[in-house]
Amino acid sequence: MVTVVFTCTLSLLLIQVQGNTCSGDSKCDDIVTMPLLDGLKATLKADLDVSNMNDHLKTYIASEIKKGFENAMNDVMKQIVTKGIEEINATITAAIQESLAGNGVTYIRWGRKGCPAGADIIYTGQVGGNAHSNKGGGVNYLCLPNDPENGQHQSYSNDQVYGGEYELGSASKPSGWSESMQNKEVPCAVCYKQRRSAVLIIPGRKTCYKGWNSEYHGYLMSDHYTHNKKDYVCLDINAEPLDNNNENENGALFYPVRTKCGSLRCPPYTNEADVLCVVCTK
Question: Rounded to two decimals, what is the model's pTM?
Fold first, then answer.
């Protein structure tokens, strides 16, 4: 309903346009009075029926509120989920680290008195093993501690634990090494690396594969092929002598080993070359 009223100084003219009027003292909630023209001592007013407009406006406002609420809730849920995932990951990581804190691996560092950075030393010692000339008995090298708890003296003959010596003369030393360690005894250290679950000695390489951590690298060594068999060990690239004694006392000997092509495929290997090695943990 629209009512248009013109007010002049001489007369009053009332024009009704479409719909019912709003008479008396009753109030019309859906009627809005708006001044349309004011000038020349005349006033033009219109009473607009906005009931339909109100319905559309309410629907629009409700829709916008719903959208805003949904967007806000989506943001809140994303934050909750993200924070929850971060907290779960942090909890799992902390639990794994706590679990690994009490775990670790051990390895022997041949040719050195100490352990690499990041590893704990369990003990330092001297390399021992069966004499190179013995035909029977043990074949592995031993890392004998420097503070042994000795057994009783015995009269039977079965000597198998001798000191280990470097055999690094001019004809057998690895390329670039000095002959100064010839006939000197070999030290060793037993190392413990925390938060590791596996140790791997890789012959033929000086670097570890992806995902593994290098503890140290060096040369693959064993006894001479004309002697009785010994294990292969990875002797540290920066090997040192046990002390200044360099008497040729033999015992368990350390010779660098080299490759021999034939059944060993060359390439990828090279004939009669030093064999590198690396000790890796994970």
Answer: 0.63
What phi and psi values does residue 234 have, to the nearest 5 degrees?
-100, 105
Task: Give, in order, the Cα–Cα distances in Å from 162 to each of 44, 144, 189, 221, 253.
Answer: 123, 10, 17, 17, 9
Q: How far apart are CA 123 and CA 267, in angstroms?
A: 41
213: left (phi over 0), alpha (psi -120 to 50) or beta: beta
Q: CA 89 to CA 93: how far, in whole Å?
A: 6
Q: Is the pLDDT of residue 19 over 50?
A: no
Radius of gyration (C-alpha) of the chain in whole angstroms = 47
Kindly give, in sequence order, each residue whose CB lies less than 8 Å from that of residue 23, ignoring residues fewer than 6 positions away: none
E-assigned strands of 55-141? 104-110, 120-129
Q: What is the pLDDT of residues 49-87, one digit of tens each?
A: 656 666 777 787 777 777 777 777 777 777 777 777 878
Nearest to 142 by CA among 158, 154, 155, 160: 160
**In degrees rounded to 5, what are phi and psi of residue 57?**
-65, -40
Strand partners, 185: 165
Tokens of 185: 């005894």
Q: Which residue has the tokens 């309410």?
A: 58
pLDDT in tens, 130-172: 988 888 888 899 999 999 998 888 888 888 889 999 988 877 7
* CA separation, residue 241 to residues 109, 146, 214 (Å): 13, 14, 23
Contact assessment for residue 205 and residue 130, using Cβ atoms and an 8 Å cutoff: no
Q: What angle do CA 228, 232, 234 make, to 5 degrees?
A: 145
Structure tokens at 280: 């890796």
Q: Which residues, in sequence order, are CB contacts of 155 under 8 Å at separation 6+?
A: none
